[in-house]
């Protein structure tokens, strides 16, 4: 059977053959680069803090701003994927958001920096396009794995950013620039990369395996492009909101940790800026395998126990994540902190993968809208967590303890939801090929 214009049933990560695999690789690469724009400033915040004279409360506002705009952006982008198509949506997002990334260095005040951080945060909506695009390119048997691998490798950009941006900053210092100029110049690099990739994405991907929305004949157009009221359908389903909470408790805490980790290690354990960046980057590097592992396990659990099994797996991972974060907050030495960080990171990132192994099955006529709402939940979680780190009455360690308790409560809610009332069943296990067939 000719599968060139149909969703793939296998994921061969070493192949770029066909529009499905080419899109798979380009979408995770685009998401990877988006992290450089989105969180490129995070490992440089100690320098920015000194340059702009920022207080703890102002830094807290900046952390909130970096994820707040993404809440609305993810919902809007999810709807655009359903109607306009992921190819045009991603291209526009990359091109538009490259502008504030490149020009953030023009600001010289807290207020200006806050506004730019808010604008840059829109690029976090890139995740929704990534998950939508892999959802339509792969068969239901493998979609959980494909979503998790693409999302995980893209999220890896958060870890690489924490390691690479201090090096880019150091390169400008070595070239003779002062710190207050070097951080501004460093942000031009990811901005240019985003702009270039916008053109790459437009010319080398398709909306669906069969072609772009506006090129397909009426009889074969993607059904989501023709269905009206997809957002309403998504919002009426309680499972959407359960996943909204779950994603706030896993991905929301991930991007909060990406924002605060380097500063936390720098201030609490007296590390250098470079070491703090490496430790924070290690957290992000676990996306190389942990999120994918969550998707693979979820697909296998779904085969044996159905969507109810996937839901219980998600609840268990969230509970373990909450416990791990609380233990991390109590770490008295750097070694214990790093070990506990790696433990809770494993559960957190696996929970990310499991969440989006469920999302495509909530309503297949509204994949973009469901994905957008659930993705927005991640940023709502990050905004709420940001208020804890903004507070002058509690320490960063206390904030992590409160977060751990909140995640445990979300885990209990998710455990009570019946995800088995799905419109699609899975009949075969996922397959992750790591060699050419």
Report on the structure:
- The chain is mainly α and 437 residues long.
- The chain has helices at residues 18-39, 45-52, 56-83, 86-103, 110-120, 126-137, 143-174, 179-186, 188-204, 230-236, 238-268, 273-285, 290-329, 334-358, 367-390, 396-416; strands at 11-12, 432-433.
- Helix 3 (56-83) runs parallel beside helix 5 (110-120), helix 4 packs antiparallel against helix 5 and helix 12 (273-285) runs parallel beside helix 14.
Question: What is the strand and helix layout of this fold?
Answer:
Layout: E1 11-12, H1 18-39, H2 45-52, H3 56-83, H4 86-103, H5 110-120, H6 126-137, H7 143-174, H8 179-186, H9 188-204, H10 230-236, H11 238-268, H12 273-285, H13 290-329, H14 334-358, H15 367-390, H16 396-416, E2 432-433
Parallel strand pairs: 1-2
Helix pairs in contact: 1-4, 1-6, 1-7, 1-9, 3-5, 3-6, 3-15, 4-5, 4-6, 4-9, 6-7, 6-15, 7-8, 7-12, 7-13, 7-14, 10-15, 11-12, 11-14, 11-15, 11-16, 12-14, 13-14, 13-16
Brief characterization of the structure:
This protein has 437 residues and is mostly helical. The longest helix has 40 residues, at 290-329. It has helices at residues 18-39, 45-52, 56-83, 86-103, 110-120, 126-137, 143-174, 179-186, 188-204, 230-236, 238-268, 273-285, 290-329, 334-358, 367-390, 396-416, and strands spanning 11-12, 432-433.
What would the keywords be for this entry?
16 helices, 437 residues, Growth Hormone, Chain: A, 2 strands, single chain
Class based on secondary structure composition and strand pairing: mainly alpha
CATH topology: Growth Hormone, Chain: A
Order of strands side by side in the largest beta sheet?
1-2
Largest sheet: 2 strands, parallel
Rounded radius of gyration (Å): 21 Å
CATH superfamily: MFS general substrate transporter like domains
Give the CATH class: Mainly Alpha
Average residue pLDDT: 88
CATH architecture: Up-down Bundle
Please provide the count of β strands: 2
* Helix amount: over 70%
Query: What is the strand content?
Result: under 5%
The tally of domains stands at 1
Task: Detail the poorly predicted runs.
Answer: 221-225, 423-437
Number of helices: 16
Shape: globular
- Strand-and-helix sequence, N→C? EHHHHHHHHHHHHHHHHE
How many angstroms does the end-to-end distance come to?
16 Å
